[in-house]
Amino acid sequence: PEPETDAVLSNELENWLNQAFAQAREAHHEYLTVEHLLLAILDAPRVRDILRACGAELARLEEDLRKHIDEATPRIATTEEDREVQPTLGFQRVLQRAVFQVQSGGRRDVGVSDVLVAIFSEKQSHAVFLLQKHGVTRLDVTNFISHGLPKDVDGTVSKEEQAAEGEKEGE
Predict the structure, then answer these.
(1) Which pTM does this prediction carry?
(2) Comparing C-alpha atoms, which of 105, 116, 126 is closest to residue 168?
C-alpha cells in the first residue's frame, strides 16, 4: 500500500497555535508573527527540553520575545475590534515548511519540534535573531532532536558531531 503522505498538525501543536491566536487577539495585535509562534511553543515541554539542551536561558528568551512583540506588532484600532488577527506570510511559511519536512521524512504528525526547526528558515525574522542571540542555532536543535546531543559545556557541538551532521545534510 501507498504510504500516507498527508501530514497533520499534532493535537499539541494545534493547541499551541490556538493559544498564539488567542494571545494575539487579546492583545489586539493586527498580525500573528513568527515571534508569536515561537513564544507560544516556548511553553511546550519538548521545545523547552530542546532549547535548554542548546543552552538557552528560557526566561530571558521569553522576555526578549515579549518585548519585541509588544514594541513591533501593530495593534487593531478599537473601532475595528471585529477584525481578525492575520497570520503573516512568515508565520504561514514556517507552518508550510514544517509540514513539508514531516512529509519528506515519511512521517505524518507535525509537532512543535518540527515548527521550531522550520522557524530557522525565516532568517530575516526577529525570532531567529533572538534564538541566535541566545546561542541557539538550527544545527544545535537538529543535533538534539536527531541524536539527543546537547551542546558541550563550552557551548559547542563537537567536531565529530558536526562532521556527522554535515555528511547527513549532504545526502
Answers:
(1) 0.84
(2) 105
